[in-house]
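Dissemination and training. As part of the outreach component of the grant, students in the summer workshop were shown how a complex can be specified as a set of sequence lines and then modelled as a single object. The example used during the hands-on session is reproduced here so that future cohorts can follow it. Participants entered these lines:
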Amino acid sequence: MADIVSRLAELKRQVEPSWTPERERRVRARVERSLLSRRRRRGALVVALAAVVSLVVLLVGQRWSSEPERPVATTTAPQAPQPLIHFADGSEVVARSANARLEPVVSTAEEITLRLDSGSARFSVTPNAQRVFRVLAGSVTVQVLGTVFTVTREAERVSVSVERGRVRVTSPLGDRELGVGETGQFREVRPVEQPASEPEPESPPASAAPAAPTPRPVSPWRALVQDGNYAAALAEIDREGPKSVRDLPEELLLAADAARLGGRPDRAVAFLERLVKRFPRDARAPLAEFTRGRTLLDQLGRPREAAQAFASARRLDSKGAMAEDALAREVEAWSRAGETELARERARGYLLRYPKGRRAAAVRRLGGVD
Amino acid sequence: MPRGEPALRVVPLAADGSAPETSLEGLDLDTLFRRYAPYVAAVAHRLLGRDDDVDDTVQEVFLAAVRGVSQLRDPAAVKGWLARVTVRAARARLRKRSLRRLVGFDEPAVYERVADTGATAEERALLARVYRVLEGMPANQRIAWALRNIEGEPLESVASLSGCSLATAKRRILAASQVIEEAFADG
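and obtained this result:
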């Protein structure tokens, strides 16, 4: 035995594989292929897990919310902190006070501008370097890229508190950047009212933010709208006569607000129609159509016309943040109009375009798609 | 370059010809494979005795290395760690082979090819006979004996590479030696 062992020790060098460079390359390639395949399997597993989690979240969400989410501003703050606005990219605004009132001014793929008319709201903005996100609070403008912050509008001042990220606050008294944990107080500078007969300057004063065209009340009805006194604003419009509301997109939107919130949704529809007819290429036109659809559906009970308005909003903003919500609400409107075939067809279109859309479950139900 | 300074200098090598690692920095799969694939292939070949199992074993070892090498703290431990992984992979392969043989799926190996072309006919015959005897042993005994008597590892290293205590390693080697002895005593 000792003889065999000693001979084997000598023979060790003879027990070698023919490990050539070609063979080494071949085995190395096999290792690479196995790694790639393992990564793919892992990726597929992650996707499957994400799908399961999304499904659970969706089911839990449906369990607790029978009402579909509203994509644009509601006018009064709910008791529970539900979103005032929820955008397709995940950004959302939640009311922080009962009198919080927020209105969208611009909603396109490149820009979202919201106006806080009163109260306090918390803004959670999904980072997106391709899109400007602004909040107008009187004479103060808050501009962000991706952050969480709260804006509170009080009698003579605007307060901005940053929870995450960084914001730039522009006011007529100067600019200021705020970081995490910082709160800034900004005094409101109210513009001097001008007689209604005098033309309103189209550009803001030099000291104001150039990119933030804050609406400037030049007539009592506009001031009344900004104070939340909609019925009085509408009465003032009637008293001033047909020329009280000029052909300007921002003014027509404001007048539509006064009518919609002042108990005359039919007149809001007329103002919004006028806006789209006169300014079909304006960035606010899709929003006007969307708001018209909501007013027709929710306040006037005219689902057929509402569906057409949502379809128009979709056409005007086919690639914008509103397109998904507009198509979902179109499905709802056709369904409520009893047009089941049209509802189903639009629902299929939605599911094809947004298979993982956050309204997919509601669309499937309303469109009767299995 | 100053006159008199050699263009090349001698670098001390480990016993198998590869310098030990001094740092784990930049030790990616490519570097690992280039440096250690021949070593892993040689150990696998001597443990398994079949050239056709070597490529699969090398592949398994380096797939495990992708996950495990980043957890090493000592750069000098890389080679030993790869040897341990190779032993584990070889053991799994030997067990699989036993199972296949049990159900009649394993083809008989030609152990005359275990020695390279530099060996004499007599040496080839001896090695083939040894591997044929090893083929009938439990995987753990075979590995312990091969590590000790073919690889030439010290007993402590056999225990470490096999993942067992020193006493167990000795027992396995002894049991395998008795089988070899009996086989060669028969002539």
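Chain B touches chain A at residues 29, 33, 37-38, 41-42, 44-46, 51, 54-55, 58-59, 62-63, 66, 114-116, 118-119, 123, 126-127, 130, 149-152, 177, 180-181, 184 (CB under 8 Å). Students were then asked to discuss how this feature might be tested experimentally.
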